[in-house]
Design goal:
The chain contains five helices and twelve strands. The N and C termini lie close together (about 5 Å). Strands 5-4-3-2-1-12 form a six-stranded mixed beta sheet. A six-stranded mixed beta sheet has the order 6-7-8-9-10-11, covered by helices on one side. About 20% of the residues lie in helices and about 25% in strands. By secondary structure, it is α/β, with parallel strands linked by helices. Bound molecules: zinc ion (2 copies). One zinc ion (ZN) binds next to loops.
Amino acid sequence: MKITIVYDNQADEGLKSGWGFSCLIEAKEKILFDTGDSGENLIYNLRQLNIQPESIAAVVISHNHWDHTGGLKEFLKLNNNAKVLHPKSFSKPTEISPGVYSTGTLGGLIKEQSLVVNTEQGNLVITGCAHPGLPKIIDKAKQLGEIYAVLGGFHGFSKLEKLQGIKLIAPCHCTKYIQQIREKYPRQFKQVKAGTVVEI
Ligand SMILES: [Zn+2]
Ligand SMILES: [Zn+2]
């Protein structure tokens, strides 16, 4: 199972950075999770990373904030066959593609879904901004099995002990306490940005 960070606040050389998040999940099908804040930059990064927009089966939008939906329109111009899965599509955990699940919509004012992806090591949880709170997302994701890794925007998440036992921790995008997470979990911490590939 392979994840490529396509869009993030930080980027490898040769890629565009911007306030936003997007990653490509290569499970049985290719799924794009979120689309960053700019269609132009999203498409640029996809091209640079040799990802064909037409090869993507579904786009999952974590929540309706511009830094996650900004590239959707441009993307759909290149691939209007992709399924688009908004948070409102799901009220409970649902398999959306073989081995890939939505947590279902969580949160009060800001509705958000996260993904849970089966890997050989255990489940990978992918978050957009984690507005419902990472602990809530983790608890929900645990219903689908043991969590091996968590990746994405953790927002203001500060109850760091909640990450105990997770083997791979890859906060990015809007994560406020990235430095504290790195200090508490130096062996589990992985720095990721646009261009990073994680294989599990
Ligand atoms: Zn947000
Ligand atoms: Zn965000």
